[in-house]
Write a structure and sequence with these properties.
By secondary structure, this protein is of the alpha/beta class. The protein is built from 9 helices and 7 strands; from the N terminus they run βαααααβαββαβαβαβ. Strands 4-3-2-1-5-6-7 form a 7-stranded mixed β-sheet. The longest helix has 17 residues, at about 35-50.
């Protein structure tokens, strides 16, 4: 039997937050108004850290900003974003972790509460084909359609990560019992539901709440890299 390896993205595989970096990028190029965007984003991030984030409100906030632009312009901007903001955050230790699972023949997947527009190319940069992210609604319902600013489907956040993982596995004709071992690497207290679900939870660069929970549970704690200053 093969194993399943699930990875959170922000602050887990990368020493930073891809959504936050995308916000900084939009401010830099005048795509959003700096002060208003920063105030709202800071509050949402505080709610996330406290475990009280309204994921639907947050997604509408970030997706509304990109819905103002064409897909062609967004693609061009995102390529620049990957080169300038994300590439420096893809570090050897994280790549080595991913490659170790791939060399073992494990089925690998990134599962993140950040939206798919931002994260799908990041998954590709890690060499991970499967990315479960918060989906983005398009005007005509096709993958290449104009963004409406609304989320689509069940957000891959908290318990939603379990629901989305199980739906993805079902699409492959698999379930949890299809694997000898199931791993999930995450830094966040918000991922405790999915960490509780797998056979091998790994608190990776964990926040204080997750660190304390992991110690109580006897889970492995992995310091993959030092947090960004």
């Amino acid at each position: 039997m093969m194993n399943l390896a699930l990875f959170d993205l922000d602050h887990t595989l990368m020493p930073g937050d891809s959504d936050h970096e995308w916000g900084r990028f939009m401010v830099r190029f005048g795509m959003v108004e700096e002060a208003a965007y920063a105030r709202a984003h800071d509050q949402f991030f505080a709610d996330y850290q406290a475990g009280t984030l309204d994921i639907h409100a947050y997604l509408r906030f970030v997706l509304g900003a990109i819905a103002k632009y064409s897909r062609a312009e967004l693609a061009q901007r995102h390529a620049q974003f990957m080169k300038e903001m994300i590439a420096p955050l893809i570090l050897p230790a994280a790549l080595e972790l991913v490659r170790s699972h791939q060399k073992n023949g494990d089925l690998c997947c990134i599962i993140t509460a950040t939206n798919a527009f931002v994260t799908a190319p990041i998954g590709a940069a890690f060499g991970i084909e499967n990315v479960i992210a918060c989906e983005v609604e398009t005007a005509d319902g096709t993958p290449g359609g104009a963004y409406t600013g609304e989320p689509a489907g069940i957000p891959s956040f908290r318990e939603g990560k379990i629901v989305r993982t199980e739906a993805w596995l079902k699409s492959l004709g698999k379930d949890w019992a299809s694997f000898e071992r199931t791993y999930f690497y995450s830094d966040s207290l918000n991922d405790i539901p999915l960490l509780e679900k797998v056979t091998d939870p790994v608190a990776t660069n964990p926040d204080e709440t997750l660190r304390a929970h992991a110690r109580r549970k006897g889970w492995r704690i992995l310091e993959l890299f030092k947090p960004a200053e």
